[in-house]
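Progress report, Aim 2. The chain analyzed during this reporting quarter is listed below.
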Amino acid sequence: MMYRITDLRDLPRLVARVTTLSILGIFGVVLVAVCLWAFAFPRAASAATDGAFQITANPGGGSILTGILGNESLPAATAALMRRVHAELGVRPAVVQTVENRHDHSLALLFTAARNDTSYTGVAIVTATPGAQAAGTALYDITTRFHTTVGPMLTRLQGMTAPANASNAPSAAVKLAPPEPLSEHAFSDGTGSISVPTDWTVSVAGGGSALVSGPAGSAQVSYNMHFGGLDPSNPRAQTFMRTASPLARQNFHGAVLPYTGDPVKSWTAMYEALARQRGMNQPQIHIVSSTPAGSTAANIAGTLGSGPKAIHFIAYVFVLPPNPMGMWQLSDSHIFVTDKDLARQAETANAVLDSVRINFGAVAAQQAAIRQMFQKQFESEIANDRAQDAARAARTDEALANDRAAQEGMHKEAVAMENYSLDRAVVVNTANGRHSTLDAGFADTLVRDNPNYQKVPAGSLLRGVDY
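Predicted structure tokens for the chain:
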């Protein structure tokens, strides 16, 4: 089954080094990424005393509440902001989702409230950097139109909080270059296509998956790429690791990792394991936000590394449980953009991933053909094993028969030697085939005088009759 990331156009805002909040949509279907580009509050509010708030009405609906919260801890500042929201709405709000960015000492939350017959939805964002005054803002409106007014309120808030000289503000919003022209690249197996700029490199394009890279490692886009894990707690996996040859271990394209079912932990552990396998430095993975997208799937965002070489990412991840051999799978669709190339490549990367088109019928047919191929190989191997077993059984039976014949021949020779030593002989009546053991002299006379009798050589002695 294939999956798509639905919020790629929010990548530039999501990876900006500011407070970030992922909101589960009003009906729990649409995930909207919300963040503040510059968390510097209006000069009037900044000059106010601790706990002072300012409320601004949004022309299209909704209210913007901003305030300075004093030298408080992040939890205390958040509580203070929510008390003010309580006072404004006249009812205590209920928090339904929280995202904390420990690196930026900020917290964002989604809340709802109901007063009489009116329901409200809002987002609140608080920063509490050590050594500075905490500050907060809340954007809220009636639930039925919040999804249409939250965007304009964010835009208005950005204008309200922008410093007088935006060009000198370190947290000013990055101006994004428009996406580059794209050229369609069809998958060689007919399972889909992806469109990329002419200077991008296509590494994988088939089987319903794609992996492409921007010039000089500036960006990377993947769609439905799979990685394998081997759960070391599985008994069959333990047997494989204990008995497999070095070549088999080398050809195992995966990582020895326990299966947890947690997509975020699995994604982090898989990338760390792949880095170890390839002799690379361990990546510093910072998860800024994660939103469940099912029991074993999640939308995640954050950074790889830090400083000028930092890579911002947004990804959709899901994991599949282990098979009887202990092998489990992780599927990863992501955008990676380096910090220095964010303004230039972010929109292009969004457009590249958005261009993926999958022929699900072709993917299903390919998977069926692969399963059929493996089934035929399996059946051929079974038939070959059975033929080899039959040949081994025939050779064994032949060897046993030859051994029995040899043993029997030696036994007959021993009986003949015993008869000779006891002066006896075995004769056969050729008329009826009856064998008799007689005194040697009598046997000689009988054979000489009666043509119906002959002596029996050692090789023709009968078990149970002659011995």
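Residues 1-50, 162-172 have pLDDT under 50 and may be disordered. The chain has three domains: 17-168, 183-358, 377-460. These observations will guide the mutagenesis work planned for the next reporting period.
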